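PROTOCOL LOG
Step 1. Enter all chains and additional molecules of the complex.
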Amino acid sequence: MTQPLLSFDDVREGDGPEPFSHELTRTDLVRYSGASGDFNPMHTDDPAARAAGLPSVFGHGMFTAGMLASTITDYVGVGNLRSYRIRFTKQTWPGEVLTATVTVAGKREEGGEKLIDLACEVTNGDGEVKVAATAVAAAG
Amino acid sequence: MGEYDEFIGKPTSVGVVTVERGTVTAFAASVLDDRAEYRNRDAAVAAGFADLPVPPTYWFSAAQNWGQWEEEQPSEPIGTSPMNIVMGGLMATGGMILHGEQEFTFHRNAVVGEKLHQRGVVKDIYTKQSGDRTMTFMVVETTYTDDAGAPVVTSTMNLIHRS
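Step 2. Run joint prediction.
Step 3. Record the structure below.
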């Protein structure tokens, strides 16, 4: 098993890593389509998206959830995530700056394992929440 | 009784998934994860893994679309997936499909080279009215198990059709 980065005794409610920000590009969406195998044209084909009444292509919810997961595992250490629950609240659009925030919401011991509860979200520059998530990670 | 109750409990997918190195590395890059464990085996071993680990959200789409080698798939027929019947049928009337919620439970860490058995099942289908729109929710749980039958990852999707 891999070493948890968080110390159960030291971590405090409200702790968290520096937020991670990224400006969403169409290239991100094309690359995520290829890597995930999700080729829904609403994410890659602007004429098709406009024909469906949208202003442009929009981001895969799972791209945003993946970016947020990367921020979480950077904080808790790869291999220490026990569960991850995501609610998709708003679509994302190319050109938006997406910011992933991870905050310690609590800690507990369960089944002999030291666990940290995390409250996570991704917002755009206007503070609109795109993805709201909770995660449980192992601590040392 | 709901309109779609007959589909609850029905399988949506079954297969053998090989966790492939190139796919895992490409997926990690696609979600902006530049950690060495996902691209360098030495770094993965130094971090305590038997081989490259798998990014958490790999199990939603990548593991469904890549690494299911044709000659290794079970011959067990599941017929047309209820997903295609229900969501495909609704889309034929117009509207839009949205990903509402997604949940992963990691029972243990999988690594590159493993072959896992995946099986999806419809857990629930229900509808809600939202103004003059009908929202149809479909909950599908996909379980990845190892050769010993032990669960590795459970992935639960809540997909919405909005009329």
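Step 4. Note key features.
Chain B touches chain A through 36 residues (CB under 8 Å).
The radius of gyration of chain B is 18 Å.
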